[in-house]
Automatic annotation (TrEMBL):
Belongs to the amidase family. Its EC number is 3.5.1.4. It comes from the Bacteria. NCBIfam families: PRK06061.1. PANTHER family: GLUTAMYL-TRNA(GLN) AMIDOTRANSFERASE SUBUNIT A, MITOCHONDRIAL, TRANSAMIDASE. This is Amidase. Residues 1-25 are annotated as: Disordered. Keywords: Hydrolase. It holds the Pfam family Amidase. Residues 44-466 form the Amidase domain. It is an enzyme of class 3 (hydrolase). One of its GO terms (molecular function) is amidase activity.
Amino acid sequence: MATGTGAGPAEQPRAGGHGPGPVRLPGLAAAVTALADGQVTARELTERALRGIEATQPTLNAFRRVRAEAALAEADAADAALSRGERRPLLGVPLAVKDDTDVCGEPTAFGCRGDFPRKSADAEVVRRLRAAGAVVVGKTNSPELGQWPFTEGPAFGDTRNPWNHDHTPGGSSGGAAAAVAAGLVPAALGSDGAGSVRIPAAWTHLVGVKPQRGRISTWPDPESFNGITVFGPLARTVEDAALLLDAASGNHPGDLHRPPPVEARAAVTRDPGRLRIALSTRWAFTATPKRLDPRVEAAVRALAERLAALGHQVEEADPTYGPIGLTFVPRATAGVRAWAGRAPDAALLDPRTRGAARTGRLLGGPVLRAARAAEGPLRRHVGRVFHRYDVVLAPTTATPPPRVGDLARLSGWQTDRRMIAHCPYAWPWNVLGWPGVNVPAAVTGDMRLPVGAQLLGPADSEPLLLSLAAQLEADQRWHERWPPTV
């Protein structure tokens, strides 16, 4: 891994009086304003980010690649642009992207071991972030091919939760979530194929947005993992998440999915009106044992009560999911098989990855085509809930974050059962391609383990979900609470 600047970490008292720690960067919108007003330079922010990354890498291990020299050069170019009076949405702000996203000059190993080639071009989403003025400080850790809700592996070690180092930040965008939750960067880009933005957002007390499929380009792939995976922002506030979403959104001519544009940030300041909200704790059928942890259920129900107090009509009601699980597995495992083919040495892949790839070979072809053909009927079936309600409120996960190592050394079958038990709620929306937003729900007990709730909507409903999330944020003030240690 490339190193940081070599300087020691700047220190300040941590929130809650837990001693010195790396200086936390301001949020995305605050950083943009401070840069435009000349209160700080892009180089200063980038140097602070690099010092924080270096100081926390032995403990949090959030980053796979750190672009110290390149990022400082990008920051200097941003400062020159700012001095000329240029104004772009993210000009001079340091951001991180996940290890599944192409950054020119860096390998895209997606959590795998092996000697991956350096990319000769940015992914379309990175191109758009650069066009908006962002400084890319590095690539964050992901489990191998993004398959699991924990961020651990022999390629990079264990990524840990800033709220409690004994526990995982989740996955697969666990490195991105850890970096944002610890204040190392103002925001980060993750990806979500079965909850991989929303799950780590829930487990690190962040806002995480899974946008409508196609909202953010997946190019150089026309689509990702047979359409179930999308890029999405992780941030501490709804406004920051919306700002990053707007900057990242847009399409390449080669994209298979091209939804009509929306204005995310503008929605944050709008009153959502009085909404009909379905509180749902039911999960889709998977034929595996699951149990909703009482701490999670209590936190989600408390949010439902606050929404009712804010004037919304909240009722208990569940979507009817039908056989949606039968359509997810072929798309996911065929996606693993395709991505595994990019690995320079298949022998270095996790045995569970090789097993998933074999399953993907068996379920490809006619089974995969049938799974994809079922999406339209499933949308109509599940979408009936939106005939009566505007938004579904559901747990993001069934449990608080598990301990580091709890799932890392299991067999493939055992891993599948355990991760479904922890995370049975997020993946159906990936099959449907619809938006979902995780919001912080609580930090549970003495263990300091965050949990979250999802706001789920039909196609192209990001503005409504973000407007509601912003109203809830103004009531809950979750962004004022920081991890006690990093």
